[in-house]
Amino acid sequence: MKKLLIIIFIITSIHSVLLASDRSSNLFTILEVKEGKPEEVNLYNVWIKDYNKFKGEFDFEVFDFCEDQMISSGGAGQLTKQTKCFYHTATDLARKYNLHHGDFASALYTYHKHLFPLAKTTALNIIQCGYGKSCTENYVDQYISRMSQIETKLFNNLDRIIINLANEDQAKIIVIRKEKKKNKKKLRDKIRKEK
Length: 195
Hints:
By secondary structure, the chain is mainly α. The chain is built from seven helices and no strands. The chain has helices at about 1-10, 15-20, 25-30, 40-70, 80-95, 100-130, 135-195. It is rod-shaped and about 90 Å long.
């Protein structure tokens, strides 16, 4: 029983180990805002600032929250529940900053689709090896390594997606402003001709 409790403690501490060593540096790297004329960079910068807030809160709002939901003697099966928690709290956080749509939402779901089977396989293997210390440590190490890779991929994708979205929206607003200015000038010219 004592051995089982120690192994379960190791499993539920995976997140803490990740924070201390393998947590993706992309998670903590903020994207730079652009400098320039406000009409040429404002919308881009709004997207980037909201995304940076999302990233800044991700560790606490997603990982720490979900870690706190796990029970220290809950067993290896909690790994799958934890990945579901990661996904649901990440989507809630994305909604908070109005980011959960399109490619951004798809990237979060893809993260879950990759992490869930990894957690499930890890939990099943730990249970099958009878919670033996060396066997469990091996699976936990593999889980941590692969989870870190999936996390890095997630934030690389989210960074790329948000930069593209911010650039596209800024370009659209510039075109709209130019069209409005052009139409305003045509209307002015028309009014002058009528006088």
